[in-house]
Amino acid sequence: MGTSDFAVPALEALHSAGYAIPLVVTQPDKPAGRGLELKASPVKKKALELSLEVLQPEKVKTPEPVQRLQSLAPDVTVVAAYGQILPPSVLQIPKIACLNIHGSLLPRYRGAAPIHYAVMAGEPETGVTIMHMNEKMDEGDMLLVKKTPIGPAETTGEVHDRLARLGAEGLLEALALLEQGKAPRTPQDHSKATYAPSLKREQCRIEWKKDARAVVNQVRGLSPWPVAETRWKDKDLKIHSAALETRDGPGSQPGRVVSVGKNGVGVATGAGVVLVTWIQPPGKRKMSAYDFTLGHPDFQPGEILS
After folding, report:
1. With CB atoms counted within 10 Å of each terminal CB, which end of the chain scores lower, N or C?
2. Range of the domain at 208
3. Which of 161, 192, 223 is the last residue of a domain?
4. With a threshold of 0.90, does the pTM exceed it?
5. Does 232 reside within a domain?
6. CA 54 vs CA 27, 51, 62, 172, 273: distances in Å
7. Residue 36 has what pLDDT?
8. Is 145 contained in some domain?
9. What sections of the chain are H helices per DSSP?
10. Mean pLDDT score of the chain, rounded to an integer?
Protein backbone atom coordinates (compact mmCIF):
# COMPACT_ATOMS: atom_id res chain seq x y z
CA MET A 1 0.00 0.00 0.00
CA GLY A 2 1.69 3.19 -1.19
CA THR A 3 1.28 6.20 -3.42
CA SER A 4 4.24 8.55 -3.77
CA ASP A 5 7.75 8.18 -5.19
CA PHE A 6 8.98 7.27 -1.70
CA ALA A 7 7.15 3.91 -1.91
CA VAL A 8 8.38 2.85 -5.36
CA PRO A 9 11.80 1.39 -4.34
CA ALA A 10 10.07 -0.78 -1.73
CA LEU A 11 7.65 -2.17 -4.33
CA GLU A 12 10.54 -2.83 -6.71
CA ALA A 13 12.53 -4.53 -3.96
CA LEU A 14 9.66 -6.83 -2.99
CA HIS A 15 9.12 -7.80 -6.61
CA SER A 16 12.83 -8.37 -7.32
CA ALA A 17 13.17 -10.49 -4.18
CA GLY A 18 10.45 -12.82 -5.44
CA TYR A 19 7.75 -12.10 -2.88
CA ALA A 20 4.20 -12.77 -4.06
CA ILE A 21 2.38 -9.44 -4.36
CA PRO A 22 -1.28 -10.26 -4.99
CA LEU A 23 -2.41 -6.63 -4.81
CA VAL A 24 -1.06 -3.07 -4.83
CA VAL A 25 -3.30 -0.47 -3.15
CA THR A 26 -2.78 3.18 -4.04
CA GLN A 27 -4.65 6.48 -4.10
CA PRO A 28 -7.10 7.23 -6.94
CA ASP A 29 -5.78 9.04 -10.02
CA LYS A 30 -5.68 12.81 -9.43
CA PRO A 31 -6.16 15.76 -11.82
CA ALA A 32 -2.85 17.41 -12.67
CA GLY A 33 -1.40 20.01 -15.01
CA ARG A 34 -3.16 22.82 -16.83
CA GLY A 35 -5.54 20.42 -18.54
CA LEU A 36 -6.38 18.75 -15.21
CA GLU A 37 -6.00 15.34 -16.82
CA LEU A 38 -6.13 12.39 -14.43
CA LYS A 39 -2.65 11.29 -13.44
CA ALA A 40 -1.72 7.93 -11.95
CA SER A 41 0.42 7.78 -8.81
CA PRO A 42 4.08 6.71 -9.12
CA VAL A 43 3.20 3.46 -7.34
CA LYS A 44 0.38 2.68 -9.78
CA LYS A 45 2.68 3.31 -12.73
CA LYS A 46 5.32 0.96 -11.33
CA ALA A 47 2.74 -1.69 -10.39
CA LEU A 48 1.32 -1.74 -13.94
CA GLU A 49 4.87 -1.89 -15.32
CA LEU A 50 5.40 -5.00 -13.16
CA SER A 51 2.02 -6.45 -14.27
CA LEU A 52 0.58 -6.30 -10.74
CA GLU A 53 -3.07 -5.86 -9.90
CA VAL A 54 -3.99 -2.40 -8.59
CA LEU A 55 -6.81 -1.27 -6.29
CA GLN A 56 -7.58 2.46 -5.85
CA PRO A 57 -10.30 2.98 -3.25
CA GLU A 58 -11.44 6.50 -2.42
CA LYS A 59 -11.53 5.36 1.21
CA VAL A 60 -9.82 2.13 2.16
CA LYS A 61 -11.97 1.80 5.30
CA THR A 62 -15.21 1.22 3.34
CA PRO A 63 -16.62 -2.35 3.21
CA GLU A 64 -15.69 -3.24 -0.38
CA PRO A 65 -11.90 -2.68 -0.17
CA VAL A 66 -11.79 -4.20 3.32
CA GLN A 67 -13.51 -7.35 2.02
CA ARG A 68 -11.13 -7.47 -0.94
CA LEU A 69 -8.12 -7.33 1.36
CA GLN A 70 -9.60 -9.95 3.68
CA SER A 71 -10.13 -12.30 0.75
CA LEU A 72 -6.40 -12.22 0.01
CA ALA A 73 -5.48 -13.35 3.55
CA PRO A 74 -1.95 -11.90 3.24
CA ASP A 75 0.92 -12.80 5.52
CA VAL A 76 2.19 -9.23 5.57
CA THR A 77 0.87 -5.83 4.53
CA VAL A 78 3.55 -3.26 3.67
CA VAL A 79 2.64 0.42 3.86
CA ALA A 80 4.81 3.28 2.58
CA ALA A 81 3.60 6.85 2.01
CA TYR A 82 0.09 5.62 1.22
CA GLY A 83 -1.82 8.74 2.25
CA GLN A 84 -4.78 7.26 4.12
CA ILE A 85 -5.10 6.25 7.76
CA LEU A 86 -5.74 2.52 8.07
CA PRO A 87 -8.64 1.46 10.31
CA PRO A 88 -8.43 -1.55 12.68
CA SER A 89 -10.41 -3.60 10.14
CA VAL A 90 -7.44 -3.30 7.74
CA LEU A 91 -4.61 -3.42 10.29
CA GLN A 92 -5.87 -6.75 11.61
CA ILE A 93 -5.97 -8.51 8.24
CA PRO A 94 -2.38 -9.77 7.75
CA LYS A 95 -1.47 -12.99 9.55
CA ILE A 96 2.02 -11.89 10.58
CA ALA A 97 2.42 -8.12 10.49
CA CYS A 98 1.26 -4.81 9.07
CA LEU A 99 4.52 -2.91 8.51
CA ASN A 100 5.13 0.75 7.78
CA ILE A 101 8.26 2.35 6.29
CA HIS A 102 8.61 5.73 8.00
CA GLY A 103 11.16 8.32 6.90
CA SER A 104 12.58 9.30 10.28
CA LEU A 105 14.28 7.92 13.36
CA LEU A 106 11.19 7.33 15.46
CA PRO A 107 9.90 8.53 17.84
CA ARG A 108 11.23 11.79 16.34
CA TYR A 109 9.27 13.38 13.50
CA ARG A 110 6.07 11.40 13.56
CA GLY A 111 3.66 12.54 10.86
CA ALA A 112 3.29 13.32 7.19
CA ALA A 113 6.45 15.36 6.46
CA PRO A 114 9.32 13.91 8.51
CA ILE A 115 12.04 14.54 5.91
CA HIS A 116 11.13 18.21 5.41
CA TYR A 117 11.17 18.89 9.14
CA ALA A 118 14.46 17.09 9.76
CA VAL A 119 16.25 19.07 7.04
CA MET A 120 14.66 22.38 8.05
CA ALA A 121 15.77 21.75 11.64
CA GLY A 122 19.36 21.26 10.49
CA GLU A 123 19.50 17.70 11.80
CA PRO A 124 22.88 16.03 11.11
CA GLU A 125 21.30 12.59 10.85
CA THR A 126 18.05 10.87 9.91
CA GLY A 127 16.96 7.44 8.73
CA VAL A 128 14.08 5.08 8.22
CA THR A 129 12.16 3.04 10.75
CA ILE A 130 10.37 -0.21 9.87
CA MET A 131 7.56 -0.39 12.40
CA HIS A 132 4.52 -2.45 13.30
CA MET A 133 1.44 -0.34 12.66
CA ASN A 134 -1.27 0.32 15.21
CA GLU A 135 -4.27 2.66 15.30
CA LYS A 136 -2.19 5.68 16.35
CA MET A 137 -0.03 7.82 14.07
CA ASP A 138 3.50 6.36 13.86
CA GLU A 139 3.41 5.04 17.42
CA GLY A 140 3.83 1.30 16.78
CA ASP A 141 6.67 -0.93 17.97
CA MET A 142 9.89 -0.67 15.97
CA LEU A 143 11.29 -3.66 14.13
CA LEU A 144 14.34 -2.16 12.44
CA VAL A 145 16.12 1.21 12.07
CA LYS A 146 18.58 2.33 9.41
CA LYS A 147 20.47 5.62 9.76
CA THR A 148 22.09 8.03 7.32
CA PRO A 149 23.80 11.43 7.72
CA ILE A 150 22.31 14.62 6.29
CA GLY A 151 24.90 16.77 4.52
CA PRO A 152 24.93 20.50 5.41
CA ALA A 153 23.92 21.43 1.84
CA GLU A 154 21.57 18.53 1.06
CA THR A 155 17.98 19.24 0.11
CA THR A 156 14.86 17.39 1.21
CA GLY A 157 14.65 15.93 -2.32
CA GLU A 158 18.13 14.43 -2.09
CA VAL A 159 17.54 13.00 1.40
CA HIS A 160 14.09 11.71 0.32
CA ASP A 161 15.54 9.69 -2.55
CA ARG A 162 18.24 8.15 -0.36
CA LEU A 163 15.74 7.29 2.39
CA ALA A 164 13.41 5.66 -0.16
CA ARG A 165 16.23 3.31 -1.18
CA LEU A 166 17.23 2.77 2.45
CA GLY A 167 13.62 1.95 3.31
CA ALA A 168 13.52 -0.70 0.60
CA GLU A 169 16.71 -2.29 1.96
CA GLY A 170 15.38 -2.15 5.50
CA LEU A 171 12.09 -3.73 4.45
CA LEU A 172 13.81 -6.78 2.98
CA GLU A 173 15.93 -7.12 6.13
CA ALA A 174 12.80 -6.85 8.28
CA LEU A 175 10.94 -9.49 6.27
CA ALA A 176 13.92 -11.84 6.56
CA LEU A 177 13.89 -11.40 10.34
CA LEU A 178 10.15 -12.12 10.43
CA GLU A 179 10.64 -15.28 8.36
CA GLN A 180 13.36 -16.44 10.76
CA GLY A 181 11.27 -15.63 13.82
CA LYS A 182 13.99 -13.23 15.02
CA ALA A 183 12.24 -9.91 14.47
CA PRO A 184 12.37 -7.63 17.56
CA ARG A 185 9.50 -5.44 18.70
CA THR A 186 10.95 -2.41 20.44
CA PRO A 187 8.40 -0.03 21.99
CA GLN A 188 8.95 3.64 21.24
CA ASP A 189 9.86 6.08 24.00
CA HIS A 190 6.81 8.31 23.66
CA SER A 191 8.35 10.96 25.95
CA LYS A 192 10.87 11.72 23.18
CA ALA A 193 8.31 12.08 20.39
CA THR A 194 8.34 15.08 18.08
CA TYR A 195 5.94 15.76 15.22
CA ALA A 196 6.07 16.62 11.52
CA PRO A 197 2.53 17.46 10.38
CA SER A 198 1.67 18.43 6.81
CA LEU A 199 3.36 21.67 5.77
CA LYS A 200 1.34 24.89 5.61
CA ARG A 201 1.85 27.85 3.30
CA GLU A 202 3.09 30.11 6.07
CA GLN A 203 5.98 27.72 6.76
CA CYS A 204 7.29 28.49 3.28
CA ARG A 205 7.71 32.20 4.05
CA ILE A 206 11.35 32.98 4.77
CA GLU A 207 11.87 34.68 8.13
CA TRP A 208 14.92 36.83 7.42
CA LYS A 209 15.18 37.81 11.10
CA LYS A 210 16.45 34.29 11.83
CA ASP A 211 20.17 33.61 11.52
CA ALA A 212 21.71 32.73 8.16
CA ARG A 213 22.06 29.00 8.88
CA ALA A 214 18.37 28.72 9.85
CA VAL A 215 17.33 30.48 6.61
CA VAL A 216 19.52 28.20 4.48
CA ASN A 217 18.08 25.17 6.30
CA GLN A 218 14.56 26.40 5.58
CA VAL A 219 15.33 26.85 1.87
CA ARG A 220 16.94 23.44 1.43
CA GLY A 221 14.28 21.81 3.62
CA LEU A 222 11.57 23.07 1.27
CA SER A 223 13.41 22.05 -1.91
CA PRO A 224 12.26 20.81 -4.39
CA TRP A 225 8.74 21.15 -2.93
CA PRO A 226 6.85 23.20 -1.81
CA VAL A 227 9.71 25.79 -2.13
CA ALA A 228 10.60 28.68 0.17
CA GLU A 229 9.10 32.09 -0.62
CA THR A 230 9.78 35.75 0.00
CA ARG A 231 8.15 38.96 -1.18
CA TRP A 232 9.76 41.79 -3.13
CA LYS A 233 7.58 44.82 -3.79
CA ASP A 234 4.36 43.27 -5.15
CA LYS A 235 5.92 39.97 -6.24
CA ASP A 236 6.10 36.60 -4.49
CA LEU A 237 9.49 35.13 -5.31
CA LYS A 238 10.23 31.45 -4.84
CA ILE A 239 13.74 30.80 -3.52
CA HIS A 240 14.93 27.42 -4.75
CA SER A 241 18.50 27.48 -3.53
CA ALA A 242 20.64 29.42 -1.06
CA ALA A 243 23.95 29.08 0.74
CA LEU A 244 25.84 30.70 3.58
CA GLU A 245 27.83 33.73 2.44
CA THR A 246 31.42 33.01 3.45
CA ARG A 247 32.24 36.67 4.00
CA ASP A 248 30.53 38.60 6.76
CA GLY A 249 28.35 41.32 5.32
CA PRO A 250 27.75 44.71 6.89
CA GLY A 251 25.27 44.86 9.72
CA SER A 252 21.94 45.49 8.05
CA GLN A 253 18.21 45.15 8.36
CA PRO A 254 17.13 41.49 7.97
CA GLY A 255 15.85 40.99 4.42
CA ARG A 256 17.91 43.81 2.93
CA VAL A 257 19.79 42.97 -0.28
CA VAL A 258 23.45 43.71 0.44
CA SER A 259 25.11 42.47 -2.76
CA VAL A 260 24.26 41.52 -6.33
CA GLY A 261 26.69 39.55 -8.47
CA LYS A 262 27.26 36.60 -10.78
CA ASN A 263 27.50 34.20 -7.83
CA GLY A 264 24.12 35.25 -6.43
CA VAL A 265 22.28 37.81 -4.34
CA GLY A 266 23.46 38.48 -0.79
CA VAL A 267 20.65 39.05 1.73
CA ALA A 268 21.12 40.11 5.34
CA THR A 269 19.56 37.99 8.07
CA GLY A 270 19.29 38.34 11.83
CA ALA A 271 22.89 37.11 12.00
CA GLY A 272 25.01 36.70 8.88
CA VAL A 273 24.34 36.87 5.16
CA VAL A 274 22.60 34.33 2.90
CA LEU A 275 23.60 33.99 -0.75
CA VAL A 276 20.46 33.36 -2.80
CA THR A 277 21.43 31.44 -5.96
CA TRP A 278 18.18 30.34 -7.68
CA ILE A 279 14.98 32.39 -7.91
CA GLN A 280 11.61 31.86 -9.58
CA PRO A 281 9.49 34.94 -10.38
CA PRO A 282 5.70 34.61 -10.65
CA GLY A 283 4.62 32.75 -13.79
CA LYS A 284 8.21 31.99 -14.84
CA ARG A 285 10.60 29.08 -14.60
CA LYS A 286 13.33 29.13 -11.99
CA MET A 287 16.52 30.92 -13.01
CA SER A 288 19.87 31.83 -11.53
CA ALA A 289 19.67 34.80 -9.20
CA TYR A 290 22.09 36.64 -11.50
CA ASP A 291 19.82 36.14 -14.51
CA PHE A 292 16.92 37.40 -12.42
CA THR A 293 18.80 40.60 -11.58
CA LEU A 294 19.63 41.15 -15.27
CA GLY A 295 15.91 41.07 -16.05
CA HIS A 296 15.09 43.32 -13.09
CA PRO A 297 17.60 46.19 -13.09
CA ASP A 298 15.82 47.82 -10.13
CA PHE A 299 16.72 44.79 -7.96
CA GLN A 300 19.81 46.35 -6.37
CA PRO A 301 21.52 46.52 -2.97
CA GLY A 302 19.21 48.29 -0.56
CA GLU A 303 16.04 46.54 -1.76
CA ILE A 304 14.03 44.79 0.95
CA LEU A 305 12.72 41.23 0.87
CA SER A 306 9.84 40.89 3.31
Report:
1. C
2. 201-295
3. 192
4. yes
5. yes
6. 10, 9, 17, 22, 50
7. 83
8. yes
9. 8-16, 42-49, 63-72, 88-91, 114-120, 156-180, 212-221, 289-295
10. 96
